[in-house]
Write a structure and sequence with these properties.
By secondary structure, the chain is mainly α. The protein is 54% helix and 5% strand. The protein contains twelve helices and five strands. A hairpin with a 2-residue loop joins strand 3 and strand 4.
Length: 267
C-alpha cells in the first residue's frame, strides 16, 4: 500500500474512532464557523451572559480577537498560549506546562477567570481568550512538534499553490473546494448534531485527539518542499470538518457549564 493510500485509510480509522467515543487555531474562517455552529447550542442564560460581556458580538466575532492582538507590544506574551509543543512519543498525561504558557493551560486559566472573576472587564477578556483557544486546540498542529514549529518550518505545495504545513491546516484546507464560510458551516452542521449530547471530554482529551492525528498530518513522502496529493487533501478536509464540529460542541458545552448555571444544557 502506498503512503497516500495509507494516510487515507488512517483518516477513516481515526474518524471512525472519534465518532464512536462514548466521551465525546484555526484561521479566521475556522473560528467563525465553529463560533456560528456553537451559538445555537447555548442555553438562554449563557447566551445572555455572553451578549452582556461581549457587547452583543457573536461567538463568531469574538473568537477572532486573540489573534488580532497577539502581535501588539502589550500582548506579545500571549503568543505561546495558542499552541503546545509535545514530542511524538510523549503522552498528554506526561506533558508539563512551560513557564511561558501553552494552549491547554490557557484554556484552564481563562475558564476559571470567566467563572470567578469579579470584574466584568476581566471576565470579558477571559471569554474572548477562551472562545479562541477552545477552537485552536482542535487544529492538529496547535498540538505540534517544537522541531518544525508546529509545521511552520515545512514548506508544502498542493494544486500549484505554495504554503507551509501549519498554514495549510489552519487556513488553506478550508479553501480547497471554493466554498463560502456559510457553505462550510452547512456541511459541518450534521456532524455537530451527531456529537452534541455525547461529549464528556476535557481539554486534555482534546489535545490528545490532536496528537493522535499526527501520523495522518505528517503522512507524506519526501524532504524539503513537500507535495500534498489529492488523497492527503481529501483526508485533511474530512478531519477538519470533524474537528470543527467537535470544537463547536465543546465550546458551547464549556460556556453553558461556566455561565448557564444548574440545568443549563442545550446539547
Amino acid at each position: 500500500m502506498g503512503r497516500a493510500a495509507g494516510a487515507s485509510r488512517s483518516a477513516i480509522l481515526v474518524l471512525a474512532a472519534l465518532a464512536y467515543l462514548p466521551a465525546f487555531a484555526f484561521g479566521p474562517a475556522g473560528h467563525r464557523i465553529a463560533g456560528e455552529l456553537a451559538e445555537p447550542l447555548l442555553c438562554e442564560r449563557a447566551a445572555a451572559e455572553i451578549a452582556a460581556l461581549a457587547g452583543g458580538e457573536s461567538l463568531a466575532e469574538i473568537g477572532l480577537w486573540a489573534d488580532t492582538i497577539r502581535g501588539d507590544d502589550g500582548w506579545r506574551h500571549t503568543a505561546p498560549w495558542h499552541y503546545m509543543n509535545i514530542d511524538d512519543d510523549q503522552p498528554i498525561e506526561a506533558f508539563e506546562h512551560p513557564d511561558e504558557g501553552d494552549v491547554l493551560a490557557a484554556i484552564e486559566r481563562h475558564a476559571e477567570q470567566l467563572a470567578t472573576s469579579i470584574s466584568a472587564e476581566q471576565r470579558a477578556e477571559a471569554l474572548r481568550f477562551l472562545v479562541h483557544f477552545v477552537v485552536d486546540i482542535h487544529q492538529p498542529l496547535h498540538v505540534g512538534r517544537e522541531a518544525d514549529r508546529g509545521g511552520n518550518a515545512i514548506d508544502v505545495t498542493y494544486r500549484r499553490e505554495a504554503s507551509n504545513l501549519h498554514r495549510f491546516w489552519d487556513t488553506d484546507v478550508l479553501r480547497l473546494e471554493g466554498l463560502s464560510e456559510r457553505e462550510h458551516a452547512a456541511r459541518v452542521a450534521p456532524l455537530v448534531r451527531i456529537f452534541a449530547g455525547r461529549d464528556r471530554t476535557s481539554p486534555r482529551d482534546w489535545a490528545a485527539e490532536s496528537l493522535a492525528l499526527r501520523p495522518l498530518v505528517y503522512g507524506f513522502r519526501g524532504r524539503g518542499t513537500v507535495s500534498l496529493d489529492d488523497a492527503y487533501l481529501d483526508s485533511a478536509e474530512t478531519v477538519i470538518r470533524v474537528r470543527l464540529a467537535q470544537a463547536a460542541v465543546r465550546l458551547a458545552a464549556t460556556l453553558n457549564a461556566l455561565l448557564g448555571g444548574a440545568g443549563c444544557d442545550r446539547q
